[in-house]
Amino acid sequence: MNEIRKIAPVAIWDNFQKLCDTPRPSNKEEAVLKLLEKMADDKGLAHFRDSGGNLVVSVPATAGFEDRKMVILQSHVDMVTQANSGSTHNFDTDPIRMVMDGEWITADNTTLGADNGIGAAAMMGFMTEDGLEHGPLELLFTVDEERGLTGAMNLEPGRLKGEILLNLDTEDEYELCVGCAGGGDLVASYDYTEEAVGAGQVARDIALTGLKGGHSGIDIILGLGNANKLMARFLRTAIRDFDARIVKINAGTARNAIPRESFATIVLPEGKVSDFDTALNAFASDIKDEIGAIEPKFAIAATNADVPAKAMSAKDSEAFNNACVGAPNGVQAMSTSVEGVVETSINLAIVKLGEGKAKVTLSARSSINSARDAMREVATAVFENIGASVAWGDAYPGWKPDANSEVVSLMKAVHKDMFGKEPEIRVIHAGLECGVLGSKYPHWDMVSFGPTIKRAHSPDECVHVPSVARFWDYLLAALKAIPAKG
Description:
Blueprint: H1 10-20, H2 30-42, E1 47-49, E2 55-59, E3 71-76, E4 98-101, E5 104-107, H3 114-128, E6 137-142, H4 150-153, E7 164-167, E8 175-180, E9 182-191, E10 194-196, E11 201-209, E12 214-215, H5 227-242, E13 245-251, E14 257-258, E15 262-269, H6 273-291, E16 299-305, E17 310-312, H7 314-326, E18 330-334, E19 342-354, E20 357-366, H8 369-384, E21 389-392, H9 406-419, E22 424-428, H10 433-440, E23 445-448, E24 453-454, E25 462-464, H11 465-481
Parallel strand pairs: 3-6, 3-7, 7-23, 8-22
Antiparallel strand pairs: 1-2, 2-6, 4-5, 5-25, 9-20, 9-21, 10-17, 11-15, 11-16, 12-14, 13-15, 13-19, 18-19, 19-20, 24-25
Helix pairs in contact: 1-3, 5-6, 5-7, 9-11
């Protein structure tokens, strides 16, 4: 692992190692912010935190570039914390252990945090490396992006002075992102009746594992399995055909990650266990036939468990699980203006149930605000129909492409000079901070780009090492090409 920090460009990989050594879950970024502040102090760079908790570091222009327009480089410092079942990793205290796999770097059974750690590490390079040529820079390190872009939502207007924003949070090289979807969450809370578990009942733990998971925006078009939907589908059979009652469910960990695993405990009559097991095996076979090509590691199994004193009532088990079966999930509409781009989607992200209380989190996305909220209304109606209370989280706006963007034109020209081809121009189905930041600073001319990162928000996350070097060279070339102030 120590050798990874020596990979070229060292300006990125040495700093990324520092980030991997520093725990940075969403809403727990204090350690990494203090690291960045110390780095700034060591170089004599001015910095401040705004009321939203975001850190801004000012980097003066190098000689000969003092007249250039001021550029804001922006990345978020938090990361999605996902680990494979059986992992003992503590994201609050343990460093991320990087693993080299050919041209790719991944982590040991956890998310890597290349999203958005590579972008943040590149920004740190302008704090640590001498001799880089650029105009005046503001480095904007935002917080709590992965839980709902709250750092960006609370960014103080009027404090930054730059004119151009380069967001470093896109995950395919040779592409420029010029627009994104907005989004909004909802949480359904359901208080249910527990009843005693009588004689002749047995308990079974059901483990649904092996799904890939992934980013609930970018990867939603892939048709990946959603652990919550699949578990609800099987539990419907168990409840209807074998008189099962739910004891607990624990599935999903992040609103913006497609859930990979679901763990449930049920009780059912002892005399129906054999038929239950037969149905479980048949269900496993059906799902493998349906999605085995894209989810080859899918598995579901049941084991004996201790019989609890209480379980969810039969009536509430049926009602709650039917709501999960009926809740919308996945792609809902494709864009009619940008071919191949998802317009509207929703992710059944988290289900937690036990001891009389259940909570379900869904996350909707759309490039059209009314369509985003229409999906939230559908999900709300499903859960209100069983008597659940539903609360909507704050929505965040999308980012509308600017056909007259000067920075996009500049980035296209630099790209063609460096790589012999123009970049692909994309609008993505994900909640980049640019939409929120642009609402705070409407005059900013914005573009987003980055190296190639795969399987973000899952323990299979990996970053392509050669693309990081090209990304760094492209960033340096773009900064040298920034025009003088008008």
